[in-house]
Design a protein that fits this description.
By secondary structure, this protein is an alpha+beta fold. The chain has one domain: Beta Polymerase, domain 2. It is built from 2 helices and 4 strands; from the N terminus they run αββαββ. A hairpin with an 8-residue loop joins strand 3 and strand 4. The chain is globular, with a radius of gyration of 14 Å.
Length: about 100
Amino acid sequence: MTRTIEIVDYDPAWPDTFAGLSSALAAALGPLALRIEHVGSTSVPGLGAKPIIDLDVIIESPRLLPLVVEALGTLGYSHEGNGGIPGREAFGREGAT
């Protein structure tokens, strides 16, 4: 199966989209989230990108992961595992922007 990747021109709304997502995540995670960072190509002003907002949630310890999975689940995110990268955990959301 061939998958097409769409790269679009930079959208000046991406920082605001991230801010909205970050606020929702911060509210759901509370003190579990030490930081929430906008990462990936949509975080670079002026750069064309896949129109998907990537973000990192920094937590204190991997032992908190079950609580994070539960909290993010309330927002429609599903835990996708570490993708073969130790220390990393990925989440996705249907229809994510």
